[in-house]
Design goal:
2 copies of one chain form a homodimer.
Chain A lengths: L7 H9 L7 H11 L1 H8 L7 H6 L13 H12 L22 H12 L12 H17 L3 H7 L8 E4 L2 H16 L9 H12 L5 E6 L4 H9 L7 E4 L8 H13 L3 E8 L11 H11 L2 E5 L24 E5 L11 E5 L36 H36 L3 E5 L5 E6 L13 H21 L5 E5 L8 E7 L7 H16 L2 H5 L1
Parallel strand pairs in A: 2-3, 2-4, 4-5, 5-6
Antiparallel strand pairs in A: 1-7, 6-7, 8-9, 9-11, 10-11
Helix pairs in contact in A: 2-3, 7-14, 9-11, 12-13, 14-16, 15-16
InterPro entries (chains A, B): Asp_decarboxylase_pyridox, PyrdxlP-dep_de-COase, PyrdxlP-dep_Trfase, PyrdxlP-dep_Trfase_major, PyrdxlP-dep_Trfase_small
Family (chains A, B): Belongs to the group II decarboxylase family.
Pfam families (chains A, B): Pyridoxal_deC (PF00282)
């Protein structure tokens, strides 16, 4: 490989001249643009490569001294990075929440980098700021169904915030709980508010000894992270057991009353609209009532399930979400936008003022800078990707996608139930389900599977998931789950059927491969 | 405009077929790729359009019902979004920290979206995780200069973390202070640590009444935001005055001792390597000593200035940064990577364990998932952009860029000093400087500019900055600043000379335009 020289001419060229049509980078780009599926399946190595082996290619902890030609580096990326990446586009990789994306995002990604706006302040984002505000308004309306006057008043108001964009659900949940915490401990005589005076002064002035959040055991791990960050402590996150995968409002109320009796206060109830593990939806309507009774913030983590609202048929599954004080959505999940497009929405456009901050050269009072109520500072114009998707797919397009995904999950559940080697563990509420390998004779009527058998099944399912992943044709994920039938957690396969390219044939092939791997495995005959 | 239909066929097409070569989107992409400067200057409207007018194009708060053809939408984006964006590539837009980027990022942005990996866990990022760890290792070595053995041990270790990538400096600073807070309040008998038991229990068990951070008045606004988020309260952020633009270590020590005497503790000192407003660098070496004396965490916010370490000639400006416990860097600033590439680095690879978190289906104990010690959860593979830049530019390439920027800033300072209508307010330490319009006669030897004149000058500088921005040929930003000569804040122009395409001619043109606008202004003759 020839070495480039660190000259001003070389640098100037990199900044001002595109690679020629015949350059390696241009070739790669052309392949990628012409047929992404072929590009990925052609370049990504099928069989899993041990991580330690991949790490060898990335073990040099020293900034390279000399420049490299773009074409050389492009080939290097193809060989070391692309070849060992995960094919998230593949219709048989149904173990995670990333899926094939619409083609236009490839071109828009380029436009985004070409424009390279910084959304933290109007001065460096001009049209992107109104665009982001509009997208937030659209999503706000989808969730909260405000009227025309409401959006006319708040969409572009400097003192209102319908929500903020962020990199993902974790930051969105943090932002929501931050706002909830600060609003729960407002200024009183001698106390300037928690933002200024901190948590300890806040608890003293409000005369409370604990500030708790109630959620289900299926709550996303980001909730605990937020409790740590906000200084409340993970022990103040009460994750209630949910053998049926959803919160019991009665239990939430009891827990809340117990906290109040102990001199504490419930800061927030978090309902989930689409748990990460099984896709279940908490009873949002009833939880809203409990929150109202406990006089606390009601947050809904709809990172996964929020997009269900596009479907007239399935939106009622999320009934009650419109009563939430804040809602988390991830456009990079069921909205088919590239990674990095989370959002938090606030029903009350003034709620975010509890965390509003200013600076001299930026985020001035009265400015419409988006960074004034967000956790993040500088960030890119990812909102454009969702804006384009909302227009090009339209509500009706999203509706079709959601309806198809849910139908596919139900179809897959049928296939699993009809197969002698599998047991459906959780029914799909949205397009997620869990199941496991479990020979038919263990599931005969009236029979209870012993702990010993369950442990053997755990081991078998773990091994087969790994084998299948390593073979590289398909990918399902696995988790451990307790259910009504299995109070002790069992190991299950978890699938997410959001990829519109996944067909029934793909699903049959996944089961066939698992069944074949399992029945050949020595553990199988010992069951 | 014809309406697309929400059919499965339309959707399937969007997910599987690229737009034809003659489609509007493909045309736009081709223009963008062939000549970005022409594309931007050709499509972005020069004169500033009032924000209210831009907002009219983004005022519909309802998800469009029907799908739209990709070509139609591409044209729409061009007309409403691109045309009203900010030309961050332009060599005469020197008011912000975003600049022209190398061309290869356009193609890589496409590759990134095509691969669409999720860096939160190995399962969905495979090769990207080792790559990100390597990039963190390279930057760690640039800052802390560990030896080979150190990086062999920690680069890919599941229990070590050399740092984390994040969207930007705000999150990086938050991450650093979070780690500092949790390490300052470790578990003791009857207390499981702040992460579990929260801030109030922590303060009780450690018998302290305040947990303070000391920084300069030039500290980034994200520090106050972090204080709020972490529950410490902004009032515990002690921002010391710095008429010379840098922290006085003696004052920091005094403030720290005062806090200790009051029963508090200093959690961290934050030094700045490149302030946002003037580019000044705190005396890091001496601050490290003070931190050691106060037994507290030493964080360096090198979001802007960190890249100076690439330059052998200028790296000594940051002397002492290697003694920091944590360092913030932004690759989207002087490393010429697209927006959204921040980092925090930890000198001690075990420091991040104070915020380590796990979950069942993800971030399992012993896994190398990158999400276990970060503020963010799901996020994209932006590290690839820096990886490519480090290879294609090389240390020597970056060195040239840094050296050129600093030389350009010094040149601009000379031009300002030689011009009768301007006053240089802060000398460039890095490639930032501040200046203002101020007629020569007011600056005659021995003369002190009166408050009245300063107020008039403030008004004049504010108006001219606005006029220049609105005219759309050039852009400098403005801020208010106090200095040794001006203890009362004055309004100044602020320029950042990081764009490699900016020439001396550009700088002369900027001054000429300002001088012309000013001398024509009625305020000028009244001075």
């Amino acid at each position: 490989m020839s070495q480039a020289k660190a000259s001003l001419a070389h640098l100037y060229r990199v900044f001002t001249k595109p690679e020629g049509k015949d350059s390696r980078l241009a070739q790669i780009e052309a392949q990628l643009s012409d047929n992404l599926a072929d590009f990925l399946s052609g370049h990504i190595v099928t069989e899993e490569i041990p991580l330690e082996q991949i790490e060898q290619d990335f073990s040099q902890a020293q900034v390279p001294e000399q420049p490299q030609f773009v074409s050389d580096h492009a080939q290097h990326l193809l060989d070391t990075l692309v070849s060992k990446s995960v094919n998230t586009y593949s219709p048989r990789f149904v173990g995670h929440m990333t899926s094939a994306l619409p083609y236009f995002h490839l071109s828009l990604a380029k436009l985004l980098v070409g424009l390279n706006q910084n959304l933290v302040k109007i001065e460096t984002s001009k049209a992107f700021t109104p665009l982001e505000r509009q997208v937030l308004g659209m999503m706000h309306r989808l969730v909260f169904a405000g009227n025309d006057g409401f959006y006319q008043q708040h969409l572009h108001s400097a003192t209102s915030s319908l929500g903020t964009f962020c990199s993902g659900g974790t930051l969105a949940n943090l932002n929501a709980l931050w706002v909830a915490r600060n609003n729960a401990l407002p200024p009183v005589a001698g106390f300037r508010g928690i933002s200024e005076d901190g948590l300890i002064a806040a608890m003293q002035h409000h005369n409370i000894n604990q500030l708790a959040v109630i959620s289900s055991a299926r709550g996303h791990y980001s909730l605990a992270k937020a409790m740590d960050l906000l200084g409340l402590g993970k022990s103040q996150l009460h994750k209630l057991n949910c053998p049926q995968q959803t919160l019991d409002p009665q239990q939430v109320l009891q827990k809340g009353q117990q906290i109040l009796q102990q001199g504490g206060r419930v800061m927030a109830i978090v309902g989930i609209a689409g748990t990460t593990e099984t896709g279940h939806i908490d009873p949002l309507d009833e939880l809203a009532e409990v929150a109202s009774e406990l006089n606390c913030h009601f947050h809904v983590d709809a990172a996964w399930g929020g997009a269900t609202l596009f479907s007239e048929r399935h939106a009622p599954l999320l009934s009650g979400i419109e009563k939430a004080d804040s809602v988390t959505l991830d456009a990079h999940k069921q909205m088919y936008v590239p990674m990095g497009a989370g959002m938090v929405l606030f029903k009350d456009p003034l709620a975010g003022n509890a965390v509003r901050h200013h600076a001299q050269y930026i985020l001035r009072q009265g400015s419409k800078d988006l960074g004034a109520t967000s956790v993040e500072g500088s960030r890119n114009g990812m909102a454009m990707m969702l804006y384009a998707s909302l227009h090009i797919l339209g509500r009706q397009g999203y509706e079709l996608l959601i309806d198809e995904s849910l139908a596919k999950a139900r179809k897959f559940a049928q296939l699993i139930k009809a197969h002698k080697d599998f047991e459906l563990v959780t029914e799909p509420v949205l397009c997620l389900l869990t199941y496991r390998l479990c020979p038919g004779h263990l599931r005969e009527k009236g029979r209870v599977i012993s702990d010993k058998h369950n442990h053997q099944l755990d081991e078998l399912n773990r091994l087969i998931q790994k084998q299948q992943r390593e073979a590289g044709h398909s990918f399902v994920s696995r988790t451990r789950l307790s259910t009504e039938s299995y109070p002790e957690p069992i190991t299950v396969f978890r699938v997410v059927l959001a990829n519109p390219l996944t067909t029934e044939q793909d699903l049959q092939a996944i089961l066939a491969e698992q069944s074949e791997l399992a029945t050949k495995h020595p553990l199988w005959d010992r069951l």
